[in-house]
Amino acid sequence: MALTPDDIADLAKLARIELTDDELAHLAPQLDVILESVMKVADVAAEDIPPTSHALPLTNVFREDVVCPSLPLADVLAGAPATEQDRFRVPRILEEEA
Predict the structure, then answer these.
(1) How far apart, in whole angstroms, are the C-alpha atoms of residue 5 and residue 9?
(2) Once rounded to an integer, what is the mean pLDDT over residues 7-19?
(3) Can you spell out the DSSP letters for the chain?
(4) Phi/psi of residue 65, each to 5°?
(5) pTM to 2 decimals?
(6) What gap in Å lies between CA 49 and CA 42, rounded to an integer?
(7) How are beta strands 83-84 and 87-88 bridged, if at all?
(8) Domains of the chain by range and CATH?
C-alpha cells in the first residue's frame, strides 16, 4: 500500500493542515511505513488472546472520601484580584453571551 503525495494532500485537507509539495513528498513514504507497521500488529493479534490495555493486571486504589472543613469563603477570595457574588471574577474568553 503506497501512499502518494495526493493521498497525503487529501488527508491534510481533512485535517486542515497546509503542506507544501516538498512536505507532501517527504511525508508520503513515512506515513506508508507507519501504516505497514500497524498492519503487522493487526496480523499478530490472535482471536484466542483477549485484548488488554496493560501487560499486567491493574487495580485502581481509591481512598475513602473524608469530609473536612474547608477554608472560610472570605479567606479563599481574599487573594483574588476580582470577585463577584462570592465567586472569582475572570475575564471572558469566549465570544458567547452569558
Answers:
(1) 6
(2) 92
(3) -PPPHHHHHHHHHHTT----HHHHHHHHHHHHHHHHHHHHHHHH--TTS---SSSS------PPP-------HHHHHTT-S-EETTEE-----SSS--
(4) -75, 130
(5) 0.42
(6) 12
(7) antiparallel
(8) 5-44 (1.10.20)
